[in-house]
Model the fold of this input.
Amino acid sequence: MTIETLIDEVIAREGGFVDHPADRGGPTRWGLTEAVARRNGYDGPMRTLPRSVAADLYRRLYWERPRFADVAARAPNLAAELFDTGINMGPEVATSFLQRALNALNRGATDYADLRVDGAIGPATLAALDTFLASRGTLGEAVLVKACDALQGARYLDLAEQRPANEAFLYGWLANRLG
Done:
């Protein structure tokens, strides 16, 4: 699966302009918040944010910058999961899910040393991923995706419990972001 396909899927799922009163992120278009658009040079109305601008921001901010392309070279389904989670929760959160899962699956640090959960993909995270995949094979990637999905689902439930207004989004998060 290419990054272009992943971006097309996200944009199709997120839809056009939305300004939900319970969304702390404010107005969005193509799933991008106004704050993200402004920080990255877009100064027009959110209602008319061009699709091409959204696609470029998704590629730069949620694929290249967090180094999910490096993960894709090793485990494309895992990279797709991280990309989608990163869009919805932030790339650092998605990466921390991966790091936590790798730590919990390293057989007591006998396969590789525990990672510092810092939300950044660097040489240590990639080396741990390489070692994990080499020892666990194709099924290993599927297990990592499930582990990241489980952490994502738990976070959604926590968000709804901590802020009742988020209950407006919980069903959609669980239906559209997991699995």
Summary: Strands lie at 17-18, 28-29, 32-33. The helical segments are 3-14, 34-39, 51-64, 68-72, 76-89, 91-104, 123-162, 167-177. The mean pLDDT is 91.
